[in-house]
Amino acid sequence: MVRGVRRPRSNGMLPLLALHTFSEYYRLDRKPPITAGLIAANSLIYLRPDFLDPILPSIEEVRFNPHLILKYGDLKRFFLSPFFHAGESHLVYNMLSLLWKGIPLESSMDRAEFASMVAVLLGMSQGMSLLISKSLLMFFDYDWSFYSEYSVGFSGVLFAMKVVLNSQTENSYVYGIPIPSHYAVWAELAFAQMLVPGVSFVGHLSGILAGLVYVWLRGSYNGSDPLTAIFRGVFGVLKWPLRFLQRWFPRRQVSGRGPVGWSQRGMSVSGFWRCHACTYENSAWLDVCEMCSTNRRGDGYGSGMGSPRSPHYSGHLTLEELRRRRLERFSR
User: Fold this and answer.
1) In whole angstroms, how far apart are CA 151 and each of 46, 60, 111, 146, 199?
2) Higher pLDDT, 315 or 306
3) 206 noted as active-site residue
4) Catalytic annotation, pick one of 116, 125, 151, 155
């Protein structure tokens, strides 16, 4: 165990965080794994369970401090301080903010791109904090509360994520108040400074600047950045064991009429096929698409298990057309 580290006690807010996170993920068709992993990592570091306690440093060893980082090269303070939190309310507030920002952002991009974005925003926000604090000391001889201050928490990354999220919308809400997206993050910074005493102004400001730089760089660069390519390679390697297991333990998938890949007697069949007209996934037992009546072979007429259906539709069906065809098919 790490000496001098007291195990935190929960006052009831962490169960509420867990319940809210579960309810949000339960209603999603696509579960964002990186956001969930970040919430779990921050929560585990705060709770310090027995299997992690021997390897985790104390919060005093990782608190962000520009003076110690620049003078002694203490990089663990640079990279680890965002994942440590000063108290339960600090953790829960940040993790709820991460949940609300991470889900829409991760859902709008692939996992590798989102993981790359979080890593870049973390490094840039921490670097901005060092740059601002050192500049205030050098040019204004102002070191009180900035160059020598200690800070922890994920807030800098969250402010940067807020900038990226706002760049995709026209309007945003800050504490329930509708504000144009270009100004929302600045309003949130002002509210945080007024309503929450002791927060790091430089840390939050650095997150905003990091987000602005990231949005500008992404807008001026086409294609995947090298870090995203690295994350894609890592995720590809991690998927190998899952692919191996899926070959030996195929997952039961559901079509409009029930499980696909298994017969009523439990015998395996060839799986399912996707209609090239409406992309609906049909059971391999069917020759005609259940959604739009397009033939599996694309000639416009069913055979085998199905009787002749409507002519082949070459193009994208509207939602109303798909509904109409499905109602006609199953109302017979």
Assistant:
1) 15, 10, 29, 10, 8
2) 315
3) no
4) 155
